[in-house]
Amino acid sequence: MTNWLYNLHIGWMALVIFTASYCVAAAVYWIVTRLAIDDRARAFKALSPGMLPPLGIIFGLLVGFIAVQIWNDFDRAKVAVTSEASALRGIVLLAANFSPDEETRLRALVALHIETCVNEEWPAMAEQRATLTMLPTPLIEAVQRVLAYTPAHDGQRTAQREIVTSLRNAIDARRERIIVSQSNVSSVKWASLLLQALVTLIAIAMVHSDNRLTCAIAMTLFSTAIALSVFLIASYNRPFTGEISVGPGLLQQVIPRESKATSDH
Fold first, then answer.
1. Roughly how many angstroms between the first and final C-alpha of the chain, as a whole number?
2. Which site among 49, 92, 253, 255 is 20 to 30 Å from 65 CA-CA?
3. pLDDT band at residue 221, thresholds of 50, 70 and 90?
């Protein structure tokens, strides 16, 4: 699967996949029915219809095997973003225990980190270009500032420990989402799934080659099932790519716009 397909609007993606599936089915139907003459017709008809259920079951198992991977990756991506947003929100709230200048600086660093995530990291993750070499500079600076801060009382000491923990959690969650952004259904899995679908279509065409209407109906039904399976896998294949993806909305909620504007002043 290519990048342009993953970046299509969900409706256009469905149209492309269903059209391709029906075109392949039509090509198989045309080739098999043209070959089904004389001895070849008898050979095709001699194929047992009992072959079709095992082929369909194998196709279903392959779909299930791939679906488990992509949905687990998608859930991991959502958990990572949620954990990062929660940790950042905790930092913003706990910073109120520090001096006004230090609170303003911590909030500015969190806001800068979120801005970097939205404008730089998310596009990179969508294209699977994001790597762990991209350092969270604002968070690293925040850790250094918090560790260098001298608490004036027990409340600030407690807040300092909690903020350091939250910063560590935010960095860990960011690392997790970057790792998950690299997840993808491998070309071997795609090839296996599509080849199994093609083999099953050919078998259906051969078994029903003596009745073209029945053959066309059976192949249309199965090609629809193929298209639906491929569409579901493709739409969720990359957690941070396409219309159905994990966005940075939760991170943007950490510091409301009104609050951000106030801190800028």
1. 48
2. 49
3. very high
